[in-house]
Amino acid sequence: MYRKQVRRRRAVLLLLVVASLTLLSLYFREGDGGPMHRMQRGVAAVLGPFAEGADRALKPARDLVNWFDETFEARGENESLQEEVTDLRDQLAEAQTKAAAAGELGRLAELTGGGLVPPGREAVSARVVGRSPTVWYSTVTIDKGSSAGVRVDDPVIAADGLAGKITATTQGTAQVTLITDPQSSVTGRVLPEGAIGVVEPNVGDPEDLFLNFVQSGEEIAEGQNVVTAGFTGGSLESLFPPGIPIGRVTDASLEEQQAYQRVQMRAYADLRDMQFVQVLAETRGDG
């Protein structure tokens, strides 16, 4: 019984294969006008409206899928563009920071390389790593200390002029008291006439300085330069070598000079935002 079923199935399969080959042969022989093609067109005509209706019915779903695809693709492109913008912004900030630092170091080297460093001293470059927490910005901390030869009372120069002096040290750091500190005073000389006074901060306005105790009768004009006097005589000795730029006279009215023997000035050095300084430290021996 089982063998008869197997033989019957094989015969049916063989007939189906022969029928398929026959139909394919007739299809290719008849061309476009044969009955097979007419049958195909008939089936297409019957099923065409159903296919068109299905296409219209599925269009919203297809559009929704396409919208999701485009949205996710656009979101991915947007995130990629944002990452590129962030990278470019970081690169620009880094380049600008390096350019500003290079410019500041260049001005500092030019200033101290012009003969301002007296014999027996050397310029020790340092970075500002801390600032006083008040608006008076009276002190800063630098990353060089006693191990680099920095000592208390050593003069400190910024990119465009005098910054202050060393007032405390550790092995690896030092505190600089700026010329804007209320306790600071520096003997200054007005160029080119040579009038001498004491440079002190303007209490209440840390941006300004005063050249006090100017000798009466000295003619001082707005725009004149004030440098360190650097004198030595008797029991007085200036901590600062002569000729270091301090600032520029901004107000030299005769009334103020006659009444207070002083003129108003502004520091050359950007004491609020300076990043680098040089300490005029005593030259260390080879040993």
Task: Give your account of this protein's structure.
Helices cover 40% and strands 26% of the residues. It has 287 residues and is α+β, with helices and mostly antiparallel strands. It folds into 2 domains: 2-61; 113-287, Rod shape-determining protein MreC, domain 1 (Thrombin, subunit H, Beta Barrel). Strands 1-2-5-4-3-14 form a 6-stranded antiparallel beta barrel. Strands 6-7-8-13-12-9 form a 6-stranded antiparallel barrel. A hairpin with a 4-residue loop joins strand 6 and strand 7 (196-201). The termini are far apart. The mean pLDDT is 76.
Write the layout of secondary structure elements.
Blueprint: H1 2-30, H2 35-112, E1 121-131, E2 139-142, E3 155-157, E4 162-169, E5 174-178, E6 186-191, E7 196-201, E8 208-212, E9 225-228, E10 232-233, E11 236-237, E12 245-251, H3 254-260, E13 263-267, E14 276-282
Antiparallel strand pairs: 1-2, 1-14, 2-5, 3-4, 3-14, 4-5, 6-7, 6-9, 7-8, 8-13, 9-12, 10-11, 12-13
CATH class division of the largest domain: Mainly Beta
- As a percent range, the share of helical residues equals 25-40%
- The CATH homologous superfamily name of the largest domain equals Rod shape-determining protein MreC, domain 1
Strand content: 25-35%
- Give the overall shape: elongated
Structural class: alpha+beta
Computed CA radius of gyration, to the nearest angstrom: 45 Å
CATH topology (level 3) name of the largest domain: Thrombin, subunit H
SSE arrangement, N to C: HHEEEEEEEEEEEEHEE
Return the domain count.
Answer: 2
- Provide the residue-averaged pLDDT: 76
- Which quaternary structure do these chains form? single chain
User: Uncertain regions: pLDDT < 50 for 5+ in a row?
Assistant: none
Would you report the number of β strands?
A: 14
Second CATH tier, the architecture of the largest domain: Beta Barrel
Q: What is the spatial order of strands in the main beta sheet?
A: 1-2-5-4-3-14
Q: Please report the distance between the alpha carbons of the first and last residues.
A: 116 Å
Main β-sheet: number of strands, strand sense, barrel status? 6 strands, antiparallel, barrel
Count of DSSP-assigned helices: 3
